[in-house]
Amino acid sequence: MKKYLHYLLLIVLAVIILAPFLYALVVSFESAEETLAFPPVLLPAHLATDSYSKALATAPLLSFIVNSFVVSLLVTAGQIITCSLAAYAFAFLKFPCKKILFILFLSTMMIPAESIIIPNYFTVRSLDWLNSYQGLSIPFMASAFGTFLLRQYFQTLPKEIYEAARMDGCGRLRFFLTMVLPLSKPALATLAVYAFLTTYNQYMWPLLITSSDNMRTVQIGLAMLQWDQGISWNTTMAGIVIVSLPTILLLILGQKQLVKGLTAGSTKG
Amino acid sequence: MIAQTKNAFGDSKQALLFLLPSLLLFAVFTFYPLFASIKLSLYNTDLMGQASTFAGFQHYVDMFSSPQFFQSLLVTLLFTLYTVIPGILLALFLACTVNRQLKGIAIFRTIFAFPLSIAVAGASMIFMMMFNPSSGICNYFLQLFHLQAVFWLSDPKWALISIAIINIWRSVGFNTIVLLSGLQTIPEQIYESARIDGAVSWRQFIDITLPLLSPTLFFVFIVSVINSLQTFGEINILTQGGPVDATNVIVYSIYREAFFNTNFSYASAESIILFFMILLLTLLEFRFLEKRVFYK
Amino acid sequence: MKKHFILGKVFTLIFMLIILLSVAGCGTKQEAAGNGKEPTKIVFWYAVGGKVGEATKTLVDQFNSTHPDIKVEAVFQGDYDSAINKLKQAIPSKSTPNVMQVYDIGTRFMIDSKAVVPVQKWIDKENFDMSSYEKNILAYYTVDNQLYSMPFNTSTPILYYNKTMFKEAGLDPENPPKTFEEVAADAQKLTEKDASGKVTRPGMALAIYGWFFEQFLAEQNSLYADNGNGRDAMATSAAFNSPEGKRVLDWWSGMVKDGSAVNMGRKTADTMKAFVSGQTAMTIDSTGVLGDIMDGVNGKFEVGTGFMPHPAGASNGGVIIGGASLWMMAGHSDAEEKATWEFIKYMTAAKQQAFWHIKTGYFPVTTAAYDDEDLKKYEAQYPQFKIAIDQLHNTPVNRSTQGGLLGVFTQARQEIESAIEHVLDGQASSEDALQKASDTVNEAISRYNASVK
């Protein structure tokens, strides 16, 4: 009985969380007239799919999705490397000014992105990286957020494994690669999902530094659709669904990985 | 004693190597622009936003004598208040409900993480449609229950709350994943021994779960505060700081001044102040909260 | 030794990644070697999306296929504001496009950027016949007797009303209100309340949009800025804090206070939706959304259109055109400039403007477009549009209807919107709100003027 009540609770919560997106999905299949009707149409008379073809015709969404994928993968790989290295230092190593350096790291999160975007534009320009994958990805390959996330996770790892490793005469880097990283799969998966999605969702930076359709990313495509917002919600919502599909898929796949990592971690712990 | 000191410095070379990739990237793409901003805040700018004549601290003086700035400050703090604590409590609740070994639990975990996969722009547009004052679905449901329609985004009393709702929705997915992964590191044996001692479940939660979860909670708290202080996308798309400045948070004001009002120096001054404010706040959080965090 | 080896590997990996990326980047930048017969390439930045963006792309494609010697690359740059911001980075780094679409209120900034070529240069050079272009539209973009940019997408606001509701309320459906006073009186008659006196259907929905305020001033032949709306000389202060400005706010807030008009915020999309779904009887919106309104209504009720209202007794006023124009940027070769001019001429020629009008609802900028057969069919389908054309032609060209020129117009518009919000919310009187807005704008103007020099 208690178990069924718990399922009921889960289902109610799931519906609440999903509601906005489900509604968007419904609207994307409505006709233009239905989107403007009151009371709002919750079940379209018939599935109108022309909003999807319209969305795809308005912006080259598919090629933008490919670009976004490449950039997001690069950033994710970069962040996994830089963040896990730095987090290891903060969690396990002793060195002077550690606290200050950590705060210095964290402080990079506190600088409003809107205020550093212009100087960065000029930096990237002088590196001749405008309109390129490296210009889109390298500035974001370090992340204080990721470092912080991993450091917190590393600190929950049992201290004994570190002591044991020291006793074995295991080198720091080997310890890092063979012990810390495998044990931290859930945190690494979280970081990967997060890094990927935040990069995928960037708008201002790609708009500023790219100026040809073959380097453009997906949120710019969404902005092209946004123009008609309010007039044809169905096209806008279709665009949102198309643009979100890859990330939703990734989340489902990533989450599986995440859960696997999680259970592995807990049985060992 | 001597051995200890030696030990304290023993790791520094290696530490430097581990930190180097991040430090290099930060130096070029974060600290250099930060210094450029500091410089810009001390100058006047030309039409294109390039530094022209030296202004000293004039822009800072202007800022601190502007009631608008303090209004923005207030709105920013209110927004943090509306989003951080409710957002974390909600995520904690969700994480606890899926921290069980039940059949199909992975599906619910994915669903609870779902909002993470929707971009700010997409989420804002979906909520814009739902919040439509005359025919949006939110007001339709209120009407079904014979409640007064709410002008979600155009009523100064509601606008900030509406933006907060969107913000909480957007961040709840990530917070839930992180808290869940924290919960999962708590070994089942600890609960078992507590059960043998006859501890009731809410006592278990307070005495065992919360302390063991504290590093994760601490992380989520710090990050939520920073993110909330920097919320921009929803406001830019939905309210543009209005109505009656009700959603004019500092980051939006920076954007407005820099990109619309061709007032780059003032915007730089604002961002420097915001930077130091968040830094101070985070230092305080570390000073007073991290002590309470229980690391194994 | 071993650990260094692994560490080294990690760094090599990062390093290689960077190298790889740089190489990949170079590949995309390489341009095909010219063989002398290459078409002249020009870059066009545009800032409209949705169906308007689609129509723009179609026109560019048609141009490219009919002009083999020119290749136009059309690049979307976000909305108007993002596009201008991008231009601000492009000018100092000398990477401006050849031609760019800029919104009406960016005119002063474009002139002051000193990075543009007035299209007048090419009009004079070719003795190009401009007589068929709408003079009310040209007047906006003419500064110091030079046509700086070529009008492209142009719209004005009009009154939309629900004829069916007019009939039900006992009003003449063929006679929309013309004055502020008539609008207020009709709105009251069109307002429905329940037994407890709560408004269930307001007579009018009016979005807080600075553009409308500017129109209401021009309707009274009143200026937005000094020095002839910034057209005799650079504006030095705002002029909207006037009895005319106050009249607009008093009228507006009066209707909101008695419930006959509803304040739905700044988005015209929201008021439009209310109108289309039959939750209000009147609204004001751009001519550009006429087609969308008709599609949304889809025969559920009869849609009427009328002139923008003005206070009783106001004379010699009219509407200001809005929209965007095409700017030719400086610093490109003569051959490119010539190609750009060909492109600009093409985009604003009769046939293209007729297509443009049908697809987007913007005015044709040239009267020659009205002879187009497709356009005639369109006019027959949407007789409501005739009002918009009449309104434009009824507008005398003077300093107030030419529209204000301000380098800080985006900010001024935002300040006005904030002022209207304060008044409608009962937080400030019309006078105080306008005073505050004008103080802020004046400060911004002096800062702007100092930065131009």
Automatic annotation (TrEMBL), chain A:
InterPro entries: MetI-like, MetI-like_sf. The chain crosses the membrane at residues 7-29, 69-93, 100-122, 134-154, 175-197, 231-253. Residues 65-254 form the ABC transmembrane type-1 domain. Keywords: Cell membrane, Membrane, Transmembrane, Transmembrane helix, Transport. It is a multi-pass membrane protein. Its main location: membrane. GO terms for cellular component: plasma membrane. One of its GO terms (biological process) is transmembrane transport. It is found in: Cell membrane. Pfam families: BPD_transp_1 (PF00528). Belongs to the binding-protein-dependent transport system permease family. This is Carbohydrate ABC transporter membrane protein 2 (CUT1 family). It comes from Pectinatus cerevisiiphilus.
UniProtKB/TrEMBL annotation, chain B:
It is found in: Cell membrane. Residues 69-285 form the ABC transmembrane type-1 domain. GO terms for cellular component: plasma membrane. It is a multi-pass membrane protein. GO terms for biological process: transmembrane transport. Keywords: Cell membrane, Membrane, Transmembrane, Transmembrane helix, Transport. Pfam families: BPD_transp_1 (PF00528). The chain crosses the membrane at residues 15-35, 69-94, 106-131, 158-183, 204-226, 264-286. It comes from the Bacteria. Belongs to the binding-protein-dependent transport system permease family. This is Carbohydrate ABC transporter membrane protein 1 (CUT1 family).
From TrEMBL, chain C:
Its main location: other. PANTHER family: ARABINOSE-BINDING PROTEIN-RELATED (PTHR43649), SN-GLYCEROL-3-PHOSPHATE-BINDING PERIPLASMIC PROTEIN UGPB (PTHR43649:SF31). The keyword Transport applies. This is Carbohydrate ABC transporter substrate-binding protein (CUT1 family). Pfam families: SBP_bac_8 (PF13416). The keyword Signal applies. Belongs to the bacterial solute-binding protein 1 family. Keywords: Signal, Transport. It comes from the Bacteria. It is found in: Cell envelope. CDD domains: PBP2_UgpB (cd14748). GO terms for cellular component: cell envelope.
